[in-house]
Amino acid sequence: MSAMEKISVAIIGAGMGGLAAAAGLTRAGLKVMVYEQATKFARLGAGIQIGCNAMKVLRAWDLEPRLRGGAFYPRSWNNREYDTGDIRFDMIFGPVAEEKYGAPYLLAHRGDLHAALASAVPADLIRLDHKLIGFEQLADQTVKLRFANGASAIADAVIAADGVHSFVKDELFGRHQPNFTGRIAYRTVFPASLLNGYAIDDCTKWWGPDRHIVVYYVKPDRSEVYFVTSQPAPGFTVESWSAMGDVNELRRAFADFHPQVRHVLDACPSVHKWALVDRDPLPRWCEDNVTLLGDACHPMTPYMAQGAAMAIEDAAVLSRCLDGVDRDGVANAFRRFEATRRERTSRVQLSSRTNTWLKAPTNPDWVYGYDAWKEPLASPEQPRPV
After folding, report:
1. pTM of the model
2. Mean pLDDT of 71-90
3. Does residue 340 carry a pLDDT above 60?
4. Best label site of 58, 72, 170, 308, fewest CB within 10 Å?
5. How far apart are the first and last CA of the chain?
6. 3-state DSSP call for residue 38?
7. CA dihedral defined by 82, 85, 88, 94, rounded to 10 degrees?
8. 245: buried, middle or exposed (CB in 10 Å: 19+, 13-18, 0-12)?
9. What tens digit of pLDDT does each residue of 306-328 get?
10. Nearest CA-CA partner of 111 in 103, 119, 121
11. Containing structural domain, residue 136
């Protein structure tokens, strides 16, 4: 490889983390190809909170105008008692948080954020219908990839953004079941017109004794409402985002909640249901010229609304670590990436698991004040024994 030749990077998975990595690395001048097992992108019915820390990354890719135009700009994330509505903690966002943390806090449809990230990656750099079934690191430090459709590829570096059930993680570090939390979530997005003029808060988490529900708008004109719940269900282990739930069962589960909650649940036409899982922090993310990113290495419960944000931060830091690196330096860059990110993502994973975020007055500066473009890069760890 000549000194002027850019390394080639294969990204496995075109979810939030994979597309964010592609956006960052193409802007760093690397040769990127994204491989996604799905045959098409789908606009799943889910909301997403785009924290100030994630927005600082997305701004660098010129996505802020698009996201501001299509997302909701909330006054606050209000935390209330499930029945009386008494305020536990009202975390003020809007202009106050934007001035303090240097970027806005937005509430969006997950599909709209995904589409924005896809727009930041040239379409010809995304290969759909490419499910990874094998890979090997070759003697010349390249990595050979094999896909279920019979295709193969060779890259200087591989980034596995293939989710909580990461094939690459299992191949590198062994297969372990994620932690089923014994809880389920219901979620849906539906037209706000179904509320028939009933007023709801911008963004509220209603805290019950053993369950909660988060409700917020995902469009700037308040035309769409999203909610997501968490409640006990020890025997349920279906993780599919497309599995349907019983809306009447959901209504019964929240029958003693505040009238605002009950009105939202009465208005929603259908819901999806899935089991909540996470993993313990991994001791290592990379092996030679292959690394994990996002949910592949630090999946977490949704209670801090930081899962996608952590993957987006990962992408920014990784693009900084790989900028200007040749093939001989990839493994070292991946170790630097891991060393820079592991402490923060582990802290968010474990903090989210407790489900206490913003339940009482909280100083969130350590989460929202983080800037992935300015965070000092750690010294790479020494090669670890296998």
Report:
1. 0.95
2. 98
3. yes
4. 170
5. 28
6. coil
7. 110
8. buried
9. 999 999 999 999 999 999 999 99
10. 119
11. 8-44+110-177+280-368
What CATH number did the domain enclosing 16 receive?
3.50.50.60
Q: In the chain, how many domains are there?
A: 1
- Non-local (6+) Cβ contacts of 94 within 8 A are 73, 74, 75, 76, 105
> Does the annotation mark 303 as catalytic?
no
- By the 8 A CB rule, do 216 and 47 touch? yes
Assess if residue 142 is contained within a domain: yes
**Tokens representing residue 321 in the block:** 């670590």
Q: Is the pLDDT of residue 383 over 50?
A: no
pLDDT, mean of residues 219-242: 87
Contact 19, 40 (CB under 8 A): no
Kindly write down the DSSP assignment for every residue of 48-82, as one continuous string.
EEE-HHHHHHHHHTT-HHHHHHHSB--SEEEEEET
Please tell me which residue in 82, 105, 186, 216 is annotated as part of the active site.
Answer: 216
352's tokens: 């989210």
Q: What percent of the chain has pLDDT over 70?
A: 97
- Residue 85 falls inside a structural domain: no
Residue 106: count other Cβ atoms within 10 Å of its Cβ. Answer: 27
- The answer to whether residue 16 is domain-embedded is yes
**d(Cα 55, Cα 63) in Å, to the nearest integer?**
9
- Does residue 262 surpass a pLDDT of 90? yes
Average pLDDT across the chain, whole number = 94
Whether 340 is covered by a domain: the verdict is yes
Q: Is 25 exposed, middle or buried (0-12, 13-18, 19+ CB in 10 A)?
A: buried
Angle between helix 307-322 and 16-27 (nearest 10): 30
- Compute the chain's Rg from CA coordinates: 21
Q: Of 24-33, 277-286, 377-386, give the range with the top mean pLDDT.
A: 24-33
What residue spans of the chain are helical by DSSP H?
Answer: 16-27, 52-60, 64-70, 94-101, 110-119, 167-173, 247-253, 259-267, 307-322, 330-353, 365-368
Q: CB of 33 within 8 A of CB of 127?
A: yes
7 DSSP 8-state letter: P
What is the pLDDT averaged over residues 118-124? 97
Average pLDDT over residues 183-206: 95
pLDDT at 3: 42
**225: which strand partners?**
190, 217
